[in-house]
Amino acid sequence: MFLEQGISPENKFWKYLIGSVFIIAASFIGQIPFSVAVLYKSYINKQDFPSENAVIMKVFEPNLTLFLVMLSFVFAFAGVFFVVKYWHSQTLLSITTSRKKIDWKRVFFSFALWATFSVVSFFILYFNAPDKFISNFKWEPFLILCFIGVIFIPIQTSTEEYIFRGYLMQGFANLAHNKWFPLVMTSLIFGSMHWFNPEVTKMGSIVMIYYIGTGFLLGIITLMDEGIELVLGFHAANNLTGALLVTSDWSVFQTHSIFRDLSEPSAGFDVILPVVIVYPILLYIFSKKYKWSDWKQKLTGKINVVESSNQ
C-alpha cells in the first residue's frame, strides 16, 4: 500500500523534517540564477534591487522569467530524489505508486480529462463575456512559451506532487500511523503555500477555499488510487493549460498566452464551485474508472507499523 511503503521503525518523522530543509535549500539554490540576473540588470540600469515580488516578476520578458523561475523546481526535484534515495533509503518509485511501475496511462488519462475540462470551461467563459478578454497571441513568443511550458511546467507540478502527496504524506504517516492526518496536514500546507500569490491579494482570503480544497482533492485521489499518477496528470494539465490559454496583470505568472483577461478579479461562487461541484464529479469519474472501494479505510484508517515495510 502506498503510505505503508515509507513506514518503518527506522524512518522517523524527524528525518522528514531534515529532508524537507534539504529540499527547500535545493530550491533556494535553484533561485540563485534568477536573483543574480535581476541583480545584474538592476546594476547595469543603475536601479535599486526590486523589493516586491510582483516587480521582480516583470523585470524580464515573460518567457525568460518563466524559464528562470522554473529552474528552482529542477533543483528541488533533484533534492527530492537525493533525500529519498540517500537519506531514507527508498526509491523514487516508492513515493510515486504502490504499483510495480508507474502507470503512465493513468497520468495521461488524468491529464487529458482535466485539460479538456479546462479548455472547454474557459471558452464557455469567453463566449459568455468576450469583452473581458483580448487576443494576446503572437506566434514566435507563443511557440517559445510552448517549448518552455511543455518541458518545465510538468517538472514544476511533479515536484510539488512528489513533495506533498509523496514525500510529506508518507512522512506524516510515519508520525501519526493513520491516513487522515497525512491527508489533512498536506492539504493545509499545500493550500497555505499559495497565501502569498497575487490572486489572494486581489480576491481576498476566501480564495484559500479553492487552494486548500484542491489540496484535499489531490490527497484523496492519492490515497484512493494508492499512488500519485492521477494527480501528476491533473496538476500538469491545470498549470499548463492555464499558462498557454490566458494570462492577466494580477496572476502569479505573466505569459505569452493566447488570451489576456482584462476583468478585475473577484471571489464569489466561482471560487467555491470547483470544490463543491466539479471536484466531486472528478472523483466520481476516477472512482468508476479505477473501481475504488473501501473509502473509509483508505482515507481514515490506521496503519499497522509492524506489517509495513520500507522499500
From TrEMBL:
InterPro entries referenced in this protein's UniProt entry, alphabetically: Rce1/LyrA-like_dom (IPR003675)
Residues passing through the membrane, by range: 21-44, 64-87, 107-129, 141-159, 180-197, 203-223, 230-247, 267-286
Keyword Transmembrane attached: yes
E.C. number: 3.4.-.-
Keyword Hydrolase: yes
Record-level Gene Ontology MF annotations: endopeptidase activity
Alphabetical GO biological process terms: CAAX-box protein maturation
Entry keyword set: Hydrolase, Membrane, Transmembrane, Transmembrane helix
Domain CAAX prenyl protease 2/Lysostaphin resistance protein A-like: 142-240
Name of the featured protein: CPBP family intramembrane glutamic endopeptidase
Organism per entry: Flavobacterium flavipigmentatum
Lineage: Bacteria, Pseudomonadati, Bacteroidota, Flavobacteriia, Flavobacteriales
